[in-house]
Amino acid sequence: MKNFRIACLPGDGIGLEVMSAAQDVLQTAAEIHGGVVFDFTNFPWGSDYYVENGLMMPEDGIRQLKEFDTVFLGAVGNPKLVPDHISLWGMLIKIRRELELSLNVRPARVLRGIDSPLHSPNDFNFIVVRENSEGEYSEAGGVIHNGPDEIAVQNGIFTRKATERAIRYAFKLAKKRGSKVTSATKSNGIVHSMPFWDRIFNEVAAEYPDVETRSVHIDALSAFLVTKPETFDVIVASNLFGDILTDLGGAIMGSIGIAPSANLNPEGKYPSMFEPVHGSAPDIAGQGKANPLGQVWTASMMLDHLGLPELGAAILEACEEVTGEGIKTPDIGGTSSTEEVTAAICSALRKKA
Amino acid sequence: MKNFRIACLPGDGIGLEVMSAAQDVLQTAAEIHGGVVFDFTNFPWGSDYYVENGLMMPEDGIRQLKEFDTVFLGAVGNPKLVPDHISLWGMLIKIRRELELSLNVRPARVLRGIDSPLHSPNDFNFIVVRENSEGEYSEAGGVIHNGPDEIAVQNGIFTRKATERAIRYAFKLAKKRGSKVTSATKSNGIVHSMPFWDRIFNEVAAEYPDVETRSVHIDALSAFLVTKPETFDVIVASNLFGDILTDLGGAIMGSIGIAPSANLNPEGKYPSMFEPVHGSAPDIAGQGKANPLGQVWTASMMLDHLGLPELGAAILEACEEVTGEGIKTPDIGGTSSTEEVTAAICSALRKKA
Ligand SMILES: CC(C)[C@H](C(=O)O)[C@@H](O)C(=O)O
Ligand SMILES: CC(C)[C@H](C(=O)O)[C@@H](O)C(=O)O
């Protein structure tokens, strides 16, 4: 019997509902597998915790997480209780940085039975590899002067190490998929970091002469995800550009509530973290309307990472059987609740046993 | 007879074709009006000029442009001849900055007879007000160290003056349209410039208590332009975010080749500049395939600015008559050439005389 220790951080808002859903699905997966145990430890960290303790997570929170095989996160943020930059930098971004989760991998395709808002979604199937540790998301900078003279300076910091790591991962992935790599740039407007990014992209590309490449400015690339998403395979992007492209990916998949992601520590030094692309959606929290698919698909990516790719695939197939039957939450045109969709996924999984 | 002196910069690639198209339409508009003359002066500046002269435009180019009532620009950039950051900072961005064109105003809606790639485009009609003089597009920063230690630092600089100016313009516009204002932010990830932006947005909003407001993170906002574009009226955004949102706007309008823009000098100290959202598209240049609608719609915005709103409206109506009849370039599913579409617009205009 193989035991996996999973640190679960439901977080805020619908994070709690979708976490509970995904845990049910994972337990069902363990049952049908027979040889694995998922040992969940739930941590009540997040905005409510902040209100009580003045911190999003305990001082030694990162140390605690390092004891686990993986971290499974719901969603963080409740701007009514804590300003977003405090809640995110105190938890989600803190975990990404301190566990050195330098890559954020986010696939996008349309699941069976789900309507894309696009006329002809043309069977797109791409993966965004997002640099996850630096770049535009930076605490360097500040505000000077007061009144009419006030000026904010925001420093983006791009190291060769992190840039090259993300780009190299994208090329390895493309080689495995037999696909091409598109680089998101904006070197026509942003004249230091983006030409630097382009230069490293071209260097790494030279090592993979059989992988087709393209650099596209982020404005045009965003538009292409709407007009011709089927032309992309692997897209590599900076932290901010990857953030934008993957929400767009969620939109064309039919709902941001479906999109999954893996925050990887590529060296395996610390546990990797798995969280859906969507946020905590405080406006619909507690109403049973949250789409569990993003968190469940994320669970499937976590199983791939844990060396259980067949079990991961079974979960995703079960999801598609359920959506294919029209059992869906309201955000994707259905009338089912979070619990109903979850129960249907579990029963589809059991039928595979 | 009122004479308008217009500096025309066709630029590169399809810029030449769409400029010539829009000049034809403007001359036709002058004919039917009877009381105005458009006096075009063409400047051959751009990437070819760079190859000959080592500069995108002459040293005293900006001084020359200041003599005109408006500047009308096609598209700049030909990466085969000049790296993008050199061509753009040597011409388009240089003109924006040195003529103090601090606002970039870009409307988005679907013209009659044009298919949006969205299933149910739901009659959206919004305007993006983009800060056009600073922010993420910045020459501040650089690269230090070599080899594995290389680091690029990119400074974004946000002044209260420019930020407030863009936001205030958005509120005035919203008040005129009786609409609401959405602010594009990313203060959860970008912790100096974006909280600063939010703070100024909230301050200005307090002066307009009857204008409804919303702040949305750029990732979610990009997704919403795909899933519910009809919920937006006026969107105010930083330089980079406005760039991304308006290419997305072009995408959901059916083609980036349709979207117009006005680069405004709000004080009227220098001429304003009018250019379509699309680029120079070197891949299709010279083939008669370029969509002239973006440049022609831009001409219509220029006429509004010159105090000829009825003539501007007549041009846009003529465009919709033509697209409504299915006379369209290939990018929007038609089979007509640039010249055919242009001739049809001119003849639709003449019928209005
Ligand atoms: C919540 C926010 C800080 C986060 C990000 O921008 O990284 C989210 O949008 C994401 O994509 O994971
Ligand atoms: C060509 C480029 C520098 C420019 C910009 O980013 O401003 C263009 O994309 C635009 O939107 O006008």
Automatic annotation (TrEMBL), chains A, B:
Q: Where on the tree of life does the source sit, at the highest rank?
A: Bacteria
Reaction(s) catalysed (UniProt annotation): (R)-malate + NAD(+) = pyruvate + CO2 + NADH
Checking InterPro entries in the record gives: ICDH/IPMDH, IsoCit/isopropylmalate_DH_CS, IsoPropMal-DH-like_dom, TTC_DH
List the Gene Ontology MF annotations in alphabetical order: D-malate dehydrogenase (decarboxylating) (NAD+) activity; magnesium ion binding; NAD binding
SMART domains from the xrefs? Iso_dh
Q: What is the lineage of its organism?
A: Bacteria, Bacillati, Bacillota, Bacilli, Bacillales
Matching PROSITE patterns:
IDH_IMDH
Q: Locate the Isopropylmalate dehydrogenase-like domain: which residues? A: 5-345
Say yes or no: keyword Manganese present: yes
Cofactors: Mn(2+); Mg(2+)
Q: What class of enzyme is it?
A: oxidoreductase
Source species, please?
Answer: Jeotgalibacillus proteolyticus
Give the UniProt keywords, A-Z: Manganese, Metal-binding, NAD, Oxidoreductase
Give the matching NCBIfam families: PRK08194.1, TTC
Known EC number: 1.1.1.83
Name of protein: D-malate dehydrogenase (decarboxylating)
> So what family is this one in?
Belongs to the isocitrate and isopropylmalate dehydrogenases family.
Quick one: signal sequence residues?
none
